[in-house]
Amino acid sequence: MKPDNTATRTLLYTDDQDRLWVRRCRIRVVSGEAKGQSCELGDRSIWIGSAPDNDLSIPDKTASRRHVELQLKEEGIFLRDLGSTNGTFFEGARIKEIFIPAGSSFRVGQTELQVVAADEQVALRAASANRLEGLIGCSQRMREIFELVSRVAPTEATVLIEGETGTGKEVIAEAIHKRSTRRAGPLQIFDGGATPGNLIESELFGHVKGAFTGATSTRRGAFECASAGTLFLDEIGELTLELQPKLLRVLENRQVRRVGGDETHKVDVRIVAATNRNLRDEVKAGRFRADLYYRLAVVRLVVPPLRERPEDLELLVEHFLGGSPKKPTPDAMAVLERYTWPGNVRELRNVVDRAKAFGWQNALDECGILAAARTHRVPTSSPASAGGEEVDDLSLERFKEAKGRIVDQFERDYLVDLMKRSKGNVSQAAREAGLDRNHLAQLLKKHNIPAKGG
Questions:
Q1: Tens digit of pLDDT for each residue in 387-396?
Q2: CA angle 276, 438, 428 (to 5 degrees)
Q3: How confident is the model at residue 42 (pLDDT cuts 50, 70, 90)?
Q4: Do residues 401 and 412 lie in contact, with contact meaning Cβ atoms separated by under 8 Å?
Q5: Which of 133, 271, 434, 442 could pair covalently with 165 via S-S, beta carbons 3.0-4.6 A apart?
Q6: Are 176 and 168 in contact (CB under 8 A)?
Q7: CB atoms within 10 A of CB 219
Q8: In terms of Cα–Cα distance, which of 52, 107, 56 is closest to 84?
C-alpha cells in the first residue's frame, strides 16, 4: 500500500517580503532503460520501483517492486530504502535513510537517478480580507502578511517574525498555529525575554530531579510540552551565545536532553520564533549565530510598526471598542493619528480600554497621548482633543526639555497602569509590556513606583 499523503505539504520559504518560493524538484532517470523519464517531488511522498503503479516505474530487474521512497521535508530531500533486495546507494554507500541535497544522484538497483531542483517563484499578493484569525488591518502591508500567513501556515516551514514590541507577533504565531495541520495540538509559548537567564535551558529542554538546587522533581520543557503542536519561541534574540548551539542541535535533530539527564527524547514540533531585534544585524555583530538564524528564518516575516500603517487605526479602534458606546470624536481620532505609537497596537489597546472605562478625554490625558501628540506642529487654532482645546505651541520650549518632560510623563502613566493591571507583579508586567524584567525594574525605581517580586 502506498503511503497516505493527506498530511504532506508543499514547503515554502522566503528571503524578503515581496516574493515567495515554492520548493519543488524533479527526480530524473539518467541511466538505464527508463533514461529520460522523470516525476515531480512536491507536496507528497513518491515511490520508485519496478512495479507499474509506482510514481516513477523503472524496468530494472535488479530493482524491487517497492524500492525507495522520497519526501520533501523542511530539512531537505528525504530518501528512504523500503527494504529492497539489492539496496539503494548514495555516493557509493548503501543507505537505509538519508537527507540528500538537490543536484545529487543515487542508485536504485542498476538505475542511476538524479534530483533536479525546480523551485518556483510566486508573487506575494495582498489578501482581499482585512481580518485573519485575530489579525486586523486594511493596509497593503498587513494584507500581504495575511496572504503570507495563509500560504505558510499549512506547511511545516519554520517562521521567524520580526517587529517592534507590541506589533502583534504573538497574534501572528497564533494565526499560523490555527491555520496549520497541527491546530488540534498545543500552542506552547516560551518567552525568552521574561525568563531568567539561568532557567532558560531548563524551561526549554526540561530537567531531571536533582539537576540543580530547587529541581525537586523531573519536569518537561517547552519542546516536549509542545509535542504534536507548535512551539512559539518569543524574543529569541535574547538567547545567549552559549545556549544558541544547544537550540540549533534540537532544531536539527528534533531530540532534547533534559538538564542533568542522560536520555534523549524525540520531539515533534513546528517552530515559530519572534524577536524585536533585527537578527541579520545581530548576526553581523556576532551576537547571534548565522547557522541558527538561517535555520529559523525559513520564512521571515517583518511586521510594520503602527506608525507606518495609520490607515489601520480606525479599524483597530473599532475592534477594541467592541460594543462600547464611547466612540472617539473626530478630534480624538485626529490626536490618535498624530501620535507615533511607540508601544504600537498594544499601546493602542491600552488607550481604548481606558477610554471605555473613563472616557476619551481622560484616556488621552492619562496615557500621555494628548501631550505627545502636541509635539507635532499643528496650527494653534486646530482642536487637539475630545474637548476641543487648542494645541500649545511647544516651539517656545527647548526641544530637549519638552521631549524629556513628555516622555517622562508618558513613562510614568504607562507604568502606573501596567502595574495596576498586573497587581504589582514585575515578571507578569514585563511579559505584558514586552520589556526585559531588569529594565522594567529600573524604570519603576526611576519613577518611584512600588512593585512586588515575581
A1: 333 334 444 3
A2: 75
A3: confident
A4: no
A5: 434
A6: no
A7: 17
A8: 107
CB atoms within 10 A of CB 43: 17
pTM, 2 dp: 0.65
> Do residues 34 and 59 make contact, with C-beta atoms less than 8 angstroms apart?
yes
Ranges of beta strands (E only) in 118-261 are 120-123, 131-132, 135-136, 159-162, 187-191, 229-234, 255-257
Least confident residue range of 7-21, 244-258, 313-327, 418-432: 7-21
**What per-residue confidence (pLDDT) applies to 60?**
93
Distance CA 447, CA 50 (A): 77
| Matching residue, cell 523519464 | 37
Backbone angles phi, psi at 148, to 5 degrees: -65, -45
C-alpha span between 214 and 283 (Å, rounded): 35
In Å, what is the CA distance from 26 to each residue of 35, 55, 63, 88, 103?
14, 12, 20, 18, 10
DSSP state of 377: -
> How high is the pLDDT of residue 403?
61
For residue 86, what pLDDT is reported? 94
Rounded to whole angstroms, the Cα distance separating 63 from 57 reads 10
Stretch among 69-78, 157-166, 306-315, 372-381 having the lowest mean pLDDT: 372-381
Cα–Cα distance, 162 to 146 (Å, whole number): 15
What is the rounded distance in angstroms from the CA atom of residue 281 to the CA atom of residue 353?
Answer: 36
Round to whole Å and give the CA distance between 137 and 149: 14
Taking the C-alpha atoms of residue 212 and residue 97, their distance in angstroms, rounded to an integer, is 39
Under a CB-based contact definition with an 8 Å cutoff, are residues 301 and 358 in contact?
no
Query: Rounded to an integer, what distance in angstroms lies between the CA atom of residue 152 and that of residue 301?
Result: 11
pLDDT at 399 over 60: no
CA dist 126 and 139 (Å) reads 9
pLDDT at residue 247, as a whole number: 93
Secondary structure of residue 391 in the 3-state scheme: coil
> Residues of the chain with pLDDT > 90: what percent?
43
Q: What is the pLDDT of residues 335-383, one digit of tens each?
A: 999 899 999 999 999 999 999 988 998 888 878 888 777 755 333 333 3
Q: Report H helices in 329-383.
A: 330-338, 344-358, 360-366, 369-373
Q: What Å distances lie between residue 219 and 145, 185, 203, 222, CA to CA?
A: 37, 20, 9, 10
Say how far apart CA 298 and CA 105 lie, in whole Å: 25
Of 442 and 133, which is predicted with more confidence? 133
In the 8-state DSSP scheme, what is residue 56? Answer: E
In the chain, helix, strand, coil percent, each to 5? 35, 25, 45
- For residue 294, how many other CB atoms are within 10 A of its CB? 13
